[in-house]
């Protein structure tokens, strides 16, 4: 079997969880909302229920029409697909979302034109930028967001996650960054969010 075989979560596997990603039945109480002071802001606030957390956004601010490499966080309502975590750095989040440990050969294809664009892949991979096993703590916990995945469109952006916050609250490359303790707290709620709304 090819080493570059896709490892992304399937819709069928989500049917075995308590998470509902049917847009026709969205409940407002299942949505975490991200706001910024302006479209160009690289920081903002994430609100879920009565709690609010500081967050970082893309270096390109927030955009309706995201493109690969623009550094923008995509505006819209995106499902929270699954949680990935570093088992060597902490326990698994106790969450209702699908959850699996990150392995040293896990990566994400962000190369426009590749057949696995915006999909999880396994190393070694011929063309690759986004390794999930990092020396820093940015990816100790990752929430994979369902942006540009059903369907995938080449060039509209890839690897949009919620993950740890950079030191000094530096902007992300297009993801939503949270302090790791805040991210864990959010995921471990009795009823965690199933969607994230990034406002315009």
Plain-language structure description:
The chain is mainly β and 200 residues long. The protein has a single domain (30-198), classed as Beta Barrel (L,D-transpeptidase catalytic domain-like). Helices cover 6% and strands 29% of the residues. The radius of gyration is 16 Å and the shape is globular. It starts with 10 loop residues before the first helix and ends with a strand.
The H-and-E topology, N to C, reads as HEEEEEEEEEEEEEHE
User: CATH top level?
Assistant: Mainly Beta
Strand content: 25-35%
- Indicate the CATH architecture: Beta Barrel
Helix content: under 10%
Main sheet makeup: 9 strands, mixed
Write down the Rg: 16 Å
Summarize the structure.
With 200 residues, this protein is mostly beta strands.
Keywords:
mainly beta, L,D-transpeptidase catalytic domain-like, 2 helices, 14 strands, globular, disordered N terminus
Note the topology:
Blueprint: H1 11-14, E1 31-35, E2 43-48, E3 51-56, E4 62-63, E5 73-74, E6 76-85, E7 99-101, E8 106-108, E9 120-122, E10 130-131, E11 141-145, E12 161-164, E13 176-178, H2 180-187, E14 195-198
Parallel strand pairs: 1-14, 4-5, 6-7, 12-13
Antiparallel strand pairs: 1-2, 2-3, 6-11, 6-14, 8-9, 8-10, 11-12
């Amino acid at each position: 079997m090819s080493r570059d075989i896709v490892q992304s979560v399937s819709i069928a596997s989500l049917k075995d969880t308590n998470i509902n990603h049917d847009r026709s039945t969205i409940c407002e109480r299942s949505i975490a909302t991200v706001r910024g002071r302006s479209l160009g802001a690289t920081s903002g606030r994430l609100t879920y229920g009565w709690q609010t957390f500081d967050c970082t956004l893309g270096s390109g601010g927030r955009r309706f029409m995201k493109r690969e490499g623009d550094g923008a966080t995509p505006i819209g309502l995106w499902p929270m697909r699954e949680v990935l975590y570093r088992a060597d750095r902490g326990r698994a989040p106790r969450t209702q979302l699908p959850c699996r440990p990150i392995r040293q050969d896990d990566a994400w294809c962000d190369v426009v034109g590749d057949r696995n664009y915006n999909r999880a892949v396994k190393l070694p991979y011929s063309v690759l930028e986004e390794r999930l096993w990092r020396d820093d703590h940015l990816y100790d916990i990752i929430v994979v967001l369902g942006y540009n995945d059903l369907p995938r469109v080449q060039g509209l952006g890839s690897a949009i996650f919620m993950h740890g916050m950079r030191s000094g609250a530096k902007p992300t490359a297009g993801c939503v960054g949270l302090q790791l303790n805040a991210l864990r707290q959010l995921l471990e709620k009795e009823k965690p969010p199933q969607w994230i709304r990034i406002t315009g």
